[in-house]
From TrEMBL:
<dbReference type="InterPro" id="IPR018757">
    <property type="entry name" value="DUF2316"/>
</dbReference>
<protein>
    <submittedName>
        <fullName>DUF2316 family protein</fullName>
    </submittedName>
</protein>
<dbReference type="Pfam" id="PF10078">
    <property type="entry name" value="DUF2316"/>
</dbReference>
Amino acid sequence: MSLTVEQQENTIEEFKENVALTGLTTEQIALDLHTDTATIEQILQLSSRSIEDPWIVKNYLTEKIMELGKEPIPFSALVGDYHDYWFLNAKKIDRKKIR
């Protein structure tokens, strides 16, 4: 699935807003997802090597925001059940780890 430039810009902004809602640093997110800060920063800018990585971060942020009793900012492009997308490795996303 390729995103248009507008979808990419919107998704990057949605990531930014959701990270802010968690109050977490990229270092904390990286630690939780078993990766490094540079990788998280690349994912938040949609520059990762794996198309599953943004879904892992999206799900992580959504979970953390809901644990705080807040409502996450909806994602406009990363929508639906990722299990239904044939081109995504759902098992990788389910593992909740970025490698």
